[in-house]
Amino acid sequence: MGNEAHDFLPDDPQPGPSWDNPRWPLVGGESEDELTQALDPTAMTLAVKAAAAKAGKAMDEKAVEQAAGDSIRAMMLVRTYRVRGHLAAELDPLGLSHRELPADLTPEYHGFTGSALERPLYVGGTLGLEWTTMAELVRILRKNYCGHVGFEYMHIADVEERRFIQDRIEGPDKVITFTPEGKRAILSAVIRGEQYEKFLGKKYVGTKRFGLDGGESMIPALEAVIKYGGQMGVREIIYGMAHRGRLNVLANVMAKPYRVIFHEFSGGSANPEDVGGSGDVKYHLGTSTDREFDGITVHMSLVPNPSHLEAVDPVVLGKTRAQQAVRGDLDEHQQVLPVLIHGDAAFAGQGIVWECLGFSGVRGYNTGGCIHFVINNQIGFTTSPQFARSSPYPSDVAKGIQAPILHVNGDDPEAVTFACKLAIEYRQLFRRDIVIDMWCYRRFGHNEGDEPSFTQPLMYAAIRQHPKVSALYDARLQKEGVVKPGDADAMCNEFVEHLETEFAGAADYKPNEADWFGGRWAGLNRPLDPEEARRNVDTAIQGKLFDSLGRTLTTVPEGLTVHKTLERVLEAKRTMFASGEGFDWATAEALAFGSLVTEGYGVRLSGQDSGRGTFSQRHAVWIDQKDEHKYIPLTQLPHGKFEVYDSPLSEYGVLGFEYGFAMADPKSLVLWEAQFGDFANGAQIIIDQFIAAGEAKWLRANGLVMLLPHGYEGQGPEHSSARLERFLQLCANDNMQVCNITVPANYFHVLRRQMLRPFRKPLIIMTPKSLLRHPMAKSAVGEFTGQSHFRRIVSDTAEIADAKIRRLVLCSGKVAYDLIARRDEAGLDDVSVVRVEQLYPFPGEALTVRLQRMTGLQEVVWCQEEPKNNGAWFFVESHIEAALGRAGKNGMRPVYAGREAAASPATGFAKRHEEQQRALVAQALGLPSEVPTQTAAKKPA
Question: Where in this protein does the record put region Disordered (predicted)?
Answer without folding.
Answer: 1-29
